[in-house]
Design goal:
Blueprint (H helix, E strand, L loop, with lengths): L5 E5 L3 E6 L4 E6 L5 H17 L4 E5 L8 H18 L3 E5 L4 H16 L3 E5 L2 H10 L1
Parallel strand pairs: 3-4, 4-5, 5-6
Antiparallel strand pairs: 1-2, 2-3
Length: 135
């Protein structure tokens, strides 16, 4: 990966980096979480996305699982409208290792594609970053 990323967050749940020159936000989830932690991490990501005028997102969700219905509803009604208003255009997704998480995330990503976010699925974060940089 080129350029020195800004570290936005680094804790037991997630690490979030931003590549301002390339307008890329990148998160790596370290374990499964939900509820307030889920919303806090997505809100921190969203605020950095807006602050640095990003249009591309790399989601490394290998260690994540299925999204709970309440978290999905919050994402659909609160988080998604702000992200689309911020100019989100490209999403590279490294899918969860677990089948239930993988199926859940694939369905959600397809919903975003219908709203105009070009998406690509990957098994490796480096390949995901290459795809994003080509967009």
């Amino acid at each position: 990966m080129t350029g020195v990323p800004l570290t936005i967050l680094d804790n037991e749940y997630a690490t979030i980096w931003c590549y301002p020159e390339e307008k890329i936000l990148h998160h790596q989830l370290h374990q499964y979480f939900f509820g307030d932690t889920f919303r806090e991490i997505l809100t921190i990501s969203q605020e950095a996305f807006e602050k640095y005028h990003c249009v591309k997102w790399l989601s490394d969700d290998r260690h994540f699982g299925a999204i709970l219905p309440d978290d999905k509803a919050w994402g659909d009604t609160v988080w998604r409208p702000r992200m689309l208003d911020a100019g989100w255009k490209f999403w590279a997704m490294v899918l969860p290792d677990k089948v239930t998480g993988k199926l859940n995330i694939q369905k959600m990503v397809h919903e975003y594609e219908e709203l105009g976010v070009a998406a690509s699925f990957h098994t490796d974060p480096d390949a995901a970053m290459v795809w994003l940089r080509e967009q």
